[in-house]
Amino acid sequence: MLVRLFFVLLIALNIAVGAWLWLGQDDARNRSAADSGVPQLRLLSERPVAPEPVPVTPATSGATAQASSVSGPTTAAASTVAPAAELPRPAPKPNSFTCISIGPFPTPQDMRTARAALTAQAARMRSRQEQTTQSRGWWVYLPASASREQALEQARRLSAAHIDDYFVVGSGGQPNTISLGLFKDPANARKRRDEVVAAGFSALMTERTETVPEYWLDLAVADGSRFDWRSKVRGPGVGSHSTGCF
């Protein structure tokens, strides 16, 4: 009994599946899955190719030109209403400076005093030290002898000729030289040399120099400013000259 019932159910199930496959598949009978009146979805590749544009005929060109002539005044009017573009403003011109050097100052303290007095008037300042050669006067002398004894003998001859104020150099860079005087004024040095030469001696004259430090103050002052350093700085031999800006 159970086997017969199972066999009947199996047949009924096969009939139901066959009916569903036959009636439920739209493609089996070329039917659409959508309702009637609803447009179907299509892929881009399935869309029809658009026709090529038709060339414009002379009549069409004339119409286009007429349309352009009509729209011309409107465009011109619109362009006149549009605000003009703002031009970029030129960059402000940087301040220009004049640079001068003040000095020489005899000591670093004199330079520092001047710097403190001029700080408020200068945009930039710097101090520097330089080496310079200064004259120590004019020296009149007799050239060095070959030995100390010869130098002393020459000194005795000077005394015999009534030439005083001499000194026999015993050491240093010019030993056995007889110094006849050091003069600040070259005219006095020449007079002394000529007197000794007239007495029969080969006197010479030369300038004595030495290297000494000098102290300078460089300043950058804005153009147009009233800069008067002379009212702030006083000192013998202090002056000024133009220099490159820094």
From TrEMBL:
<feature type="domain" description="SPOR">
    <location>
        <begin position="132"/>
        <end position="208"/>
    </location>
</feature>
<protein>
    <submittedName>
        <fullName>SPOR domain-containing protein</fullName>
    </submittedName>
</protein>
<dbReference type="InterPro" id="IPR007730">
    <property type="entry name" value="SPOR-like_dom"/>
</dbReference>
<feature type="region of interest" description="Disordered">
    <location>
        <begin position="45"/>
        <end position="74"/>
    </location>
</feature>
<dbReference type="InterPro" id="IPR036680">
    <property type="entry name" value="SPOR-like_sf"/>
</dbReference>
<dbReference type="GO" id="GO:0042834">
    <property type="term" value="F:peptidoglycan binding"/>
</dbReference>
<dbReference type="Pfam" id="PF05036">
    <property type="entry name" value="SPOR"/>
</dbReference>
